[in-house]
Amino acid sequence: MSPLSVAALVGAFPVEFPAAIVYNSPVEKIRIQGRNDFQLKGGVRIGGSKNAVLPALAASLLTGEKVHLSNIPLVKDVFSMLKLMKELGLDYHLEGTNLTLEVPKILSEEASYNLVKVMRASFLVLGPLLARFGKAIVAQPGGCAIGLRPVDLHLAGLQRLGANITLEHGYIKAEADRLQGADIRFEKKTVGGTEHLIMAATLARGETILRNCAQEPEISNLCELLIKMGAKIEGVGEETVRIVGVDALGGADHEIIPDRIEAGTFLVAGALTHGDIRLTGTEPSHIMTTIEKLRYSGATIDIDGKTLHVVGSAEIRPQDVTTSPYPGFPTDMQAQFMVLMTQATGTSIITETIFDRRFQHVNELLRLGAAIEVLGDKAVVHGRTPLSGAEVIATDLRASASLILAGLIASGETIVNDVEHIDRGYERIEEKLRALGARIERFRD
Ligand code: UD1
Q1: Which of 53, 155, 186, 190 for mutating ligand 1's site (highest number of atoms within 8 Å of CB)?
Q2: Which residue among 22, 144, 227, 366 is the active-site one?
Q3: Which one, 5, 17, 195, 299, has the greatest CB density within 10 A?
Q4: Roughly how many angstroms between the first and final C-alpha of the chain, as a whole number?
Q5: Is residue 264 classed as helix, strand or coil in its secondary structure?
Q6: What is the DSSP string of 338-367?
Q7: What stretches of 149-259 show up as alpha helix (H) in DSSP?
């Protein structure tokens, strides 16, 4: 089989892609030649945030004018979202990491299951389509590897904004002549739910007050884009956000924030390998909880503007970690941090409070020689266990990252199967690690 270019992933693609950016078929694997005393050294540039760009893409449906986004991460989820939005009527042009989007008119108000199932975040097109065109039909997202992920809070909120919502044959149909502002309290913090209702409320009649909002930086980045488009939003980054609806939104120029999870993953890589890595293009204020935890574990991390310098310590101290909404410890860093704790001198307890099935990497880490017990929402990690290479399978995006990290310090060869997960959220991870000295390659059987 020949490698599929990024262009092939999105169908007819308007620009040529650099040869280096090539994502291949799902049967690909990653091979790592690791060593227990392996050290990563050098510099790495962190890309734009996957979780910030996806809602920004959905937000472009709210206007007929051009939206220019910069610092786009060239990851698979972005291309999946572009493919879906193209069917809805999106014209786009991507040059390097700059993307111009325009939805002059709607071609279809229906987002099909085939496209929604590959990426939950695509569900976010529902609210913007509804708010601008009065109607949307979007496949209900299914379950996923990290647990039950309902969209009930999104739908209850849209109903409170006056949408008539029905579920037919696995599709959610939403209709409203014009959405109407409302006072809504989220029962629990939801990143996607907060983004969805903020976007929908920008074109509603009157004022919407959203309470108990999630406060992730990606939500603030979205609000900044919407404000540039003409939205009236107060309380950006706070638990209570007020939106006064306007009749129409316009175009904007906007920069996507750096990916705090990619940065956190490379910080863990530095700490884990007793390495010395300089990360450029980061936003340190977005990852202070991760930085603090890594510092407690023994790593030295210096912050200089947008650059982070991590130097790992020969002795890693055990740390208990509980995932929670921002600014708490991110669930998206849990798997990577667990790998670090397998090398700590003592026992750590990692508690996962956000998703109910997010310990699937544990079985694979056990195959590499880790000593971990899962008790309900807790993983008890007994350190320090030298790891030894094995064939493992990646079950979700962050689990894949954790297995690659483990492979770096596992003696001998580790093969990570199902690497398509990693391409959803990390841009050329094996190239970035290779530049830091890792012996890692992508291959097909
Ligand atoms: C986003 C991130 C994901 C991250 C997660 C938590 C994107 C594209 N993805 O996912 O990487 O792991 O935040 O930080 O930004 N819930 C409900 N009902 C709902 C919505 C959510 O019960 O209607 C629950 C979820 O099942 C989960 C919790 O709320 O237990 C938090 O989920 P949420 O914050 O919505 O996650 P996502 O936006 O899907």
Answers
A1: 190
A2: 144
A3: 195
A4: 10
A5: helix
A6: HHHHTTBSSEEEEE--S-TTTTHHHHHHHH
A7: 152-160, 191-201, 217-228
CA of 190 to the centre of ligand 1 (A): 5
Q: In the numeric block, which tokens belong to residue 108?
A: 């279809």
Domain ranges of the chain: 17-46+258-443, 50-255
Domains 17-46+258-443 and 50-255 share a fold: yes
**What's the pLDDT at 19?**
35
CATH code reported for the domain at 17-46+258-443: 3.65.10.10
Strand partners, 277: 42, 310
Question: What's the pLDDT score for residue 142?
Answer: 64
Of the CA atoms within 13 Å of residue 25, those in its CB half-sphere come to 6
Look up the pTM and report it: 0.93
At 9 the pLDDT is: 33
Residues with CB under 6 A from ligand 1: 51, 54, 120-121, 148-154, 188, 190-193, 214, 218, 331-332, 354-355
173 Cα–ligand 1 center, Å: 21
Q: Which CATH number is 50-255 given?
A: 3.65.10.10
* Residue numbers in the chain where pLDDT is lower than 70: 1-26, 142-148
Res 51: pLDDT? 97
Q: Rounded to an integer, what distance in angstroms lies between the CA atom of residue 81 and that of residue 95?
A: 17
Active site residue 213: no
CA distances (Å), 439 to each of 148, 196, 411, 413, 431, in order?
36, 41, 12, 10, 10
